[in-house]
Each structure stands twice: as C-alpha cells, then as structure tokens.
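Consider the tokenized backbone below.
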C-alpha cells in the first residue's frame, strides 16, 4: 500500500485500463478531486496531506490544447475574484532536447556536486533538471549560471513553444517565460507552467497550481502512444490566496423557480408543471406540505428562488398565470402554455435537454 502523491498517473492508469483512448470523442477531457500526500517538512502552504483538483486532456498534441488548459487554470482563480496572479511558463523540450540539456547540466553541476544538498547529489545522476527546482540550493551561485533549456531546444520544440505562446497572446493571457521552471515529476516534456500568487502576505511558497505536457506517460503505463496535458491545484493554497486578497466565495444556493399552488386542481397542475420545467432544464421545486400561499412565498425566500409561478383555481381556469421576479418584485401574466418557454428565456438554458 502507498499514499497517493499526485493525480495524473492514477488518471492515466484509469484511462488505459478503461480503454478511453478508443472512445469516439477525442481528446478525452477528464478531471478529479482527491486527497494527496507528500513526504515533506510541513510549513505554511505545504502540507503532508492536501486536497487537490486536477484536469487532464489526453489524445491531442495540438499546442492550442496547452493554451486551453492554462486558460482554464487561470479562469478558475479569476472566476473566484483573485487578481494578484502571475503565470510563468517554460518549455522542457522533446526527448532529444532534454537529453542534450541533461548532458549540459551534468557538466555544469558536476564540479559543485559536493556543495549541493544530498537530494541534488542524487538528482545529478537521476534527473539533473530537478536540481533547478531545489528549494535548498536555490541561492547557490551555480544555480544562477546554469545553462538554459531554451538554448538546447531543437527546431521542433522551439516551434511548439512559439505556437503555445502565440495562442496565449491571442487569448490576451499575460505570462512570463522562466527558463529555470521545471516540474517536480520526471514525466513532463514540452510546456510547463505554474500560476503564482503575488498577493501581499501570501507567504514564501507562492505557487498556487502547476502543470504541463506529458507525452509518453500513457505508453509508460501500458497504453498506446497518446499525448497528454494537464494541471493540478491545491485547494488549501486556493483558500490561502482568497484570504490574502480578502476575497470571499458566495456559497448561497439559488433555486431558479418555485411553483406556488393553491387548491386541488392547481396542485395537480403544479406537479405536471414542475415535471415539464425540469425536463426543459429549469431548476424547479414546489411545496409538498400543503402550506398556504404566504407560507409558500416564505419558502421561496428561504430557497432564494429567482422566480415564482403562481397557480390557483382562477389561473388554471383562465390559463393565465402570474410569474413573479423575486429579486425585482416585478410580476407579469403569462399564458399557461407559454410558461415553460418564458422561464427558459429568462433563466437561460442549462443543458442540451432543454
């Protein structure tokens, strides 16, 4: 048994075991929530047990996918109101570029190996790129003079990185290229990125989320050659960023429509109307406790209902029903046969079944 350190490899394993690569809709776009565990010294923003949200796109080597994934990660924070964000990107190149760069790093750090921490002494042989990500030796002079991966990219890798940047430019997403940015896991190649908080008082560990491309991982786990791209974000660090920027999340749940019915015929018609509205994609509920109209309106307020449809014996007979906007207080009469169409229009269609 082992404690799960990250989410990408398990998702890829499930992708392979369930043969999602054979599904008619490609690329596969997957997400996950889960608890992860890290064997690190706990400090502010770095916990041994954390909650993580992640996204993986499997099946496309298009640079536009890289930009789309980065855009989604940025949008997650921006939708919650965060503004003090910094996007950092880099290219780790393809296999050929990485091999050339690996040799350059070994040659560069070898004279300083005994000055580095024990982890970096091991990394020099196993994966020298991870030395650049070391928090212990980050101020060592050799770090400042280390060769840049960008100088070792072949033409294919250069072109790919330029296309990713071009897509980000088109989306008007500002970014900074950091030649020392590497990902802590060995399977990454081509695009790597991190989103950082620049909020005052956030703390020394500024990274909110990170991700990149991992062409080859599916093959390593027994699947066919399949490119992949994704990111993960720690939810605890998200909460820290919200606190640092003094932002709060609106947790209020809203009901789109509550059907208020008074009388036996109206109650029966209300059951049918609730059914039809739900089928049309309008989030709807009704009173099932036999409350009077005043009590049903109180329930509408407690449920934060945006609209109320009022059904009574007279309304059923005239086939005209009042629809009340609970926010503005405005009320309009709508033909019973047009109520569904009217509500769909004012609340918006939420899914394809509408």
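A designed sequence for it:
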């Amino acid at each position: 048994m082992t404690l799960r350190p990250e989410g990408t490899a398990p998702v890829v394993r499930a992708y392979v075991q369930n043969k999602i690569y054979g599904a008619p809709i490609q690329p596969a776009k997957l997400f996950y929530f889960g608890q992860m565990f890290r064997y690190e010294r706990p400090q502010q923003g770095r916990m041994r047990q954390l909650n993580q949200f992640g996204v993986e796109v499997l099946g496309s080597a298009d640079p536009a996918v890289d930009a789309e994934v980065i855009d989604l990660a940025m949008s997650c924070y921006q939708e919650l109101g965060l503004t003090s964000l910094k996007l950092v990107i880099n290219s780790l190149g393809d296999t050929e570029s990485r091999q050339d760069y690996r040799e350059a790093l070994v040659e560069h750090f070898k004279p300083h190996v005994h000055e580095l921490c024990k982890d970096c002494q091991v990394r020099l042989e196993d994966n020298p790129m991870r030395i650049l990500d070391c928090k212990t030796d980050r101020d060592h002079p050799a770090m400042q003079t280390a060769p840049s991966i960008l100088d070792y990219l072949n033409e294919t890798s250069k072109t790919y990185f330029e296309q990713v940047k071009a897509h980000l430019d088109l989306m008007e997403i500002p970014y900074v290229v950091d030649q020392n940015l590497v990902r802590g896991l060995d399977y990454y190649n081509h695009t790597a990125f991190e989103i950082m908080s620049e909020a005052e008082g956030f703390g020394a560990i500024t990274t909110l989320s990170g991700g990149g491309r991992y062409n080859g991982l599916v093959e390593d786990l027994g699947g066919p050659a399949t490119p992949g791209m994704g990111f993960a974000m720690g939810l605890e660090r998200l909460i820290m960023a919200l606190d640092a920027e003094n932002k709060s999340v609106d947790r209020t749940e809203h009901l789109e429509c509550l059907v208020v019915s008074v009388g036996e015929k109206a109650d029966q018609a209300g059951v049918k109307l609730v059914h039809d509205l739900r089928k049309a994609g309008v989030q709807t509920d009704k009173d099932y406790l036999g409350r009077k109209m005043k009590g049903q309106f109180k329930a509408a307020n407690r449920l934060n209902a945006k609209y109320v449809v009022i059904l009574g014996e007279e309304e059923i007979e005239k086939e005209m029903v009042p629809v009340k906007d609970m926010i503005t207080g405005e009320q309009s009469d709508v033909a019973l046969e047009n109520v569904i169409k009217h509500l769909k229009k004012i609340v918006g269609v939420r899914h394809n079944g509408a």
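The chain has twelve helices and twelve strands.
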